[in-house]
């Protein structure tokens, strides 16, 4: 079949997936007023866009006005699922709240299922210890949602990457890690697309 496809200049689904640009969502995990996540998300998007290897977009949970699971059937739930379905992979911008992820992110994770499955994700976290504890909690949740989380995990410190804990001034040393994480997210997102 592949010989005939080649002969007649047809491309297979696998060949299309190998060449097309993937859609990667940069998901802001916090929704509180005064949150720092938009600064971090925009910084990651700026680095990602320079690579030109995928379509990167900021996905802000706050825009969807999601109710808590089971409380109401708001239109935001369908819109949230539709947005996730458009995406091939994710970068979670994760902040540490009481040694874990935010309630807003957990609720947003719980409000979809198939739209998460068989996709890849990277994590960029921040907190007093780089948000490491929140990120490790998130990895456990991602396993249940069949999201393959990549190894490289940039960790940002509230003390050394933010001025006065509020204005984001990342150290240069994070740049290589962000790019390595994005390399891994792209490779795994592409691979997983072949089985969806
Ligand atoms: C409810 C709450 C709990 C927090 N708990 C922790 C914590 O356990 N560890 C930590 O490093 N930072 C903690 N912080 C500090 C946050 O990581 C910091 O405020 C960060 O800016 C929050 O992200 P955001 O600005 O995007 O909301 C907490 C902040 C809040 C609001």
TrEMBL record:
- Pinpoint the NADPH-dependent FMN reductase-like domain residues: 23-152
One Gene Ontology cellular component annotation held by this UniProt entry: cytosol
InterPro entries attached here?
Flavoprotein-like_sf, FMN_Rdtase-like_dom, NAD(P)H-dep_reductase
As given in the record, the signal peptide range reads none
Pfam families on file: FMN_red
Q: Name one GO molecular function term.
A: FMN binding
The family classification in the record reads: Belongs to the azoreductase type 2 family.
Q: What is this protein called?
A: NADPH-dependent oxidoreductase
